[in-house]
Specification:
Mean pLDDT of chain A: 93
Helix content of chain B: under 10%
Number of strands of chain A: 11
Largest interface: A-B, 24 and 22 residues
Shape of chain B: globular
Number of helices of chain A: 0
Radius of gyration of chain A: 14 Å
Number of helices of chain B: 0
Structural class of chain A: mainly beta
Structural class of chain B: mainly beta
Mean pLDDT of chain B: 93
Order of helices and strands of chain B: EEEEEEEEEEE
Largest sheet of chain B: 6 strands, mixed
Radius of gyration of chain B: 13 Å
Strand content of chain B: over 45%
Oligomer: heterodimer
Strand content of chain A: over 45%
Order of helices and strands of chain A: EEEEEEEEEEE
Low-confidence stretches of chain A: none
Distance between the termini of chain A: 36 Å
Largest sheet of chain A: 7 strands, mixed
Chain lengths: 115, 111
Amino acid sequence: NAGVTQTPKFQVLKTGQSMTLQCAQDMNHNSMYWYRQDPGMGLRLIYYSASEGTTDKGEVPNGYNVSRLNKREFSLRLESAAPSQTSVYFCASNRRDRSSGNTIYFGEGSWLTVV
Amino acid sequence: ELKVEQNPLFLSMQEGKNYTIYCNYSTTSDRLYWYRQDPGKSLESLFVLLSNGAVKQEGRLMASLDTKARLSTLHITAAVHDLSATYFCAEPYNQGGKLIFGQGTELSVKP
């Protein structure tokens, strides 16, 4: 089982460049998320998608756009990268179970540096 | 304001010692998640605490939840070097699996 797969794993961008982080899950989950992780701040939610065709802002959405292409894929786009977007990005998906609630599965992370 | 606060943020322990990491949260949720992260790696789920008074144990780690006090604890018993990692607690907010994370506790276990 691949679980949650993110690409690329590492990327260096110049200020003003654009790029898309790709995420796919093979667990048939409805909900998917993008988080960023910065030193000393834990993970913060950028955007999430409750189901195919829907997206909504999280805690820190500025400077990002997302697309829920289908049930499997949820991409994160930086239109004009800024040094403040240097971070580690994690994609996640959610399995909802009546008895145990939500179980969140995280991808391996994408290390992005904006210079 | 939704907030999850962990303390301590850094913890240096000797092998064989016991210690507790505290997680205070601001929501009225009745569940709490604990994750472990090794350097350069993703987050690994440790515990999902589903109700007030819940206690779960895995090896040398035990987690508990007091929803009245909005407090969860992660207790480490007889620490070993392999437990060195960063530990996060996270609290769900609204519906749909969205999480608010604590800052993380960086644990270093020394021989």
